[in-house]
Amino acid sequence: MWKKCFLALISITLVGLGYRTAYSQLINRGLKSYINYGWTDFQNYPENQPVFPKFDYLGNFLLKGFDVFTWEEYRTLSPNEGSVIVKGRMFQDWLRRLVIANDTFGGVGVRFAIGGGMRTTFTPLTLDLTRLNGVRFDLASDRHQFTAIYSRVSDPLKLDYKQSFSKDWVVRKNEGVFLLGGHWESKFLRDHFTIGATFVNMYRFDSLLKLRDNSLRGVAIRNAIPDTIVVRFTDDSPEDGIGGAAVYNICAVAQVQAGDKVISMRIEPEKILKSPGVITHRNYLEASGQYHVGILEVPVSITYYFPMPKNTVQVEFKALVANDYRISIRQSHHFTIIEGSKEKTVTVSEVPLRGEWPYYPFFVIRRAKGNVRDMSNKGFVRFSYGMLTGLTTMGLNMELNLIGFHLKGEYNRNFCYFQYPVKKGDRSKWTDAAYFLTVTKDINPFMVGAEIFSIGSKYNTYHQNGPFWYFNDERQIPWQYRGITGYNNRYPLVDDNDDNDIWPDNWVDEWNIYTPDSFIRQDAAGIFPGLDKNKDQFPDYNVNNNNIPDWDEPFLQYFVDPVEFQYGADYNNNFIVDAFEDDLLPQYPYYKDEKGQHFFVTFRPLSYLKFTTGSVDIHQIAGGGINKMTYGTINIDYRVRGRGKIWFEHKVKRVRDNIPNDWWEFVLQEGGGAVGRANYIHTRFRDRLVMKNSLVHRGYLEVKYHPIRDLNIINSVRYEFNSMLASEFSDGTSQPEDKIDFIGLVCKADYKFQYKNFTIMPRIKNYWYRWSRKSLNKPYVNKNVLIPILRADYRVTRNTFIKLGMQGFPLLKNRVWNWVNKDYSYKEQDFIILVNNITYYQGYKVAWEIGWQHTYRDYEGPGLGDDNFSKFFIRVHSGVSAIY
Known about the structure:
This protein is mainly beta.
């Protein structure tokens, strides 16, 4: 028996030697090990955070983390979408829409960024974007810099920064518009000379076409074959009302595909529409001036409708025209969409009704050079039709600082590519240039300077009067016009950002991607152009980042004066300081369709005194207007050590300016009531051209005085007197002798008294301004404002304060006297008390305040509602700071 047991034991031992993993044969799937976190960090399953191993396309392990961003372009993956962008939810939740990778090698720094709002600037005339949504690559050494960008601007996948998302976001498209570009700069001559080059391109792509068919000129849109092409003639200077478009005849020649051949076919207009105001002469039609549709002024127009033969691949128009003409063009077509389970044929219209889509408005294809009125430019104009498929801007820039000379300039050429919207459609293009050069030279005690510039009327990096990127499906659009949303997208290369903040002035807020109709033309900070001395990207007179300028808010209005009191250069002669002008135009250094020069000499006999004289000569290239000005200036900047300073400037200028420069302002809609008080409307103001022939005196005086410590007395006055000379102008208009005057006065004083933990700060301010016109016999604006304020702070601890503010008192109320419309005069009292604390914790700075505010405003007008409300508030702010 024992022998059998011994043999069994030997057999089990041999099996164990032969199979070292014999235990894996057991049914038991393993016991879980004991876990102890005494010396190791706590680890758990990813759960809410999708943290998993990530590998490259070759199977190599990269890291343990989460997916952030994916961009894939297929040519072609038909019928599936070929342009795919994915932004993981961690791109939004953790990384706040910006990812940066960087490295250095051999003295060269490299940075690669993906973001949803990257400020990107190449040069002022080529690319200046406030919020690039895409990919950016930067490379820099001591003397060389290079930047490249890439973006699907038509569908960049915008995320709502106000919310966190619980899923990844994907946008797949078969067609759209790409933006790509690069800028290089290098320094030479011991860094005295800088030269750069720029290339920027936008082009339409179609992922259902092969790679070789998707060039930088772009491809035509699918399913947009024209049924009709519409040509419209209008007056290029409708404001003068004379010498507009004279149209003798127009015809079209179409190239039609017939089998293997292309035949020419002459096309006559099937219909001619004449708006009110068209004049019929013996052998031509004339469209001059404007007519009214409700409150709108619409240019008089002559419109021709040309039916397009089937299988057309090209169409060229030939028109015999004269005088100051503007030719615009558009198309009509049909396409099919799916609504539910049914097909629906959609007709493209010129101007959509509310909620109807799509539409394709006119864009300008030709303009007369100058403002001709005597038929001297009569001749044939030829142009082809096509939809915009690509846009390219390229150029050079330079800067030189050497032996007292400072030169800066750039030259750029812009190309717009068009294609008749069929697969084999004929291509056409237009091109224009823009340049400027500035030079200054110090020759003590003189400084001389000059600038020359030109921006062509067809130079196109912005949508102003330019062509459109058309789509047959909806896009996330960054703009609206008069409340209309549609299919004609406009992607600027140079933003309109007059206030230099984090939002372009015409941008739909990124969080508002589902309800674009609610867009109002103002951004998070409001469009308040002006100085930003502290460079925080918010105007200095809207420090609390709301839609109300600080000059109209209690307590804040002590520090800020209304825009009428701001002083600075006004080279476009519309009474608005150039730095404070909101004009709905790209932020070019000069206006489009203008060329000219400016020369000046400055003489500084004393450190605080200088004299300047200069001359400006500007002509519109296509518009025909002029801006000619000679001026002289005296400037005093005198400082009294420890007591204050005096700053004074007086400028006299002789002006002949008939170029209109309209502007926009947020205007307070008065009427009383808590809601009406903060109701600011973005309002357009017309340039009435009151300096067509004028002698203007303008200036500013500011005196700051500190007689004793902590007492500040500040007085300033701004004035502008425009003497309009009786004149007869070449366009047949005239102006009588007249005078327009503005004067504004600000007086204010403040004192700070401190005793132990108490700080008491009385303040008082009074400002008055008046606009008057000699021909009206009385002022049309006459307003005075008195602002008495008492501020007091009590320091409870190092980081906690009790703060009190009163503006207006029982016997000395905050007063506004409106002597033109006395109903809008009012008395006001504001009271606020709050507790404020600032805490530093783990690298964060947290500021919170809790308090109560009461406002009472009593209008003198019996029909106006008064303000009488209280507000309790708790606010908390957080930011990154040093660790304490």
